[in-house]
Amino acid sequence: MGKLEGRVAVVTGAASGIGAGIAVAFAREGAYVVVADQCGRAAAEPVLAEVAAAGRQALFVQTDVSDTRSVAALAAAVQQRFGRVDVLVNNAGIFTEALVEVMSVEEWDRVVSTNLRGTFLCTRVFLPGMLERGSGRIINIASQLGQVGGTAVAHYCASKAGVIGLTKALAREVAARGVLVNAIAPGPIETPLLDRETEQWRRSKLAELPIGRFGTVDEVTPTAVLLASADGSYYVGQTLGPNGGDVML
Q: Which of 15, 58, 144, 214 has the highest Cβ tally under 10 A?
């Protein structure tokens, strides 16, 4: 028996990177997994195959988390297939770089709409069912940049700081009704997102990290399993930081 045996988990942004890692880790612990991503099904096939290899059912739903109708369609598809959601991982997010002095309103809105509005919309659509059953877990993927800030990423930092604030506020609203809400704020992790950074940035960031290296997806996923499972039953409104020492609180 895995730690998530028989649970139904929705993971947004699950076609690649941290989201894909969490989806596979959940399946290996016995969960049925809904892979929600804005990409097409073809891009999600590798993670769907890994979920299937773990012996679990997988459902792919193409989803734009910033769009209310798309999120409603996701909820309808999940309800039809599984009838409930036990764990929601709000992982979908985008990252761009621009100094505030030249950042367009459109770029600000696009990042905040996906990262923060998307977390709210997905939470709002799945939370009522959890409250009705008196149980559920919501895990929001934030970032260490939401804790300390960063140059040329004010929109991203603001969105992730908002995710942390939303996590704390919602945890206070729903913990007594059986739904536990927490966040994970990873440091720099080797994903396609990090691959887009310049070599100069990578060298500079490595010099700042006490551990002296970037993290891997497999070093983040155990935290998600912890928060989704019975082992995480006393975590409420927390932001856990697998970050290699980039942030120490």
A: 15
